[in-house]
Amino acid sequence: MEQEKKKPQELKHFEWKSVPGVPEIYSNYLYIGWTLDDVRVTFGGIKSVNVNSDSHIAEEKGSVVLSWRQAKNLRDMLSLVVDAFESKNGEITPPYLADPASGEIGKEQKPR
């Protein structure tokens, strides 16, 4: 006789508690690496961009390591929040950097 598949138990809502000293990190660049056990997301900030080169500088701000289960949960949550944002504000598109020497700064940017 086959064992019946059990439904995973749903977790109850957890109350978030603010703790003094917990950092808030802004990131406009990230890198993802993984092992068999977990996923590491390293967050950074772009410090220098040379429009005439493929070489740029990003400064590491911090990393978060997640179990694969929590990585999947994060993926699903981000998908929901991005879909909700885009439904109200339109599609998020990648930015295009103006070359300071071109006189394009302050003008609407078009994809190249």
Outline:
This protein is α+β, with helices and mostly antiparallel strands. 20% of the residues lie in helices and 27% in strands.
Please characterize this protein's 3D structure.
The chain is of the alpha+beta class. 20% of the residues lie in helices and 27% in strands. It has a domain at 29-90. It has one helix and three strands. It has a three-stranded antiparallel β-sheet with strand order 1-2-3. The radius of gyration is 21 Å and the shape is extended. The model has no long low-confidence stretch (mean pLDDT 83).
What would the keywords be for this entry?
112 residues, three-stranded antiparallel beta sheet
Helix and strand layout, with pairings?
Blueprint: E1 29-34, E2 38-49, E3 56-67, H1 68-89
Antiparallel strand pairs: 1-2, 2-3
- How would you characterize the largest beta sheet? 3 strands, antiparallel
Q: Order of helices and strands, N to C? A: EEEH
Structural class: alpha+beta
Q: What is the count of DSSP helices, taking H or I runs of 4+ residues?
A: 1
Shape: extended
End-to-end CA span: 63 Å
The percentage of residues in β strands lies in 25-35%
Give the helix proportion (percent range).
10-25%
| Strand line-up of the largest beta sheet | 1-2-3
Give me the Rg, rounded.
21 Å
Count of β-strands: 3
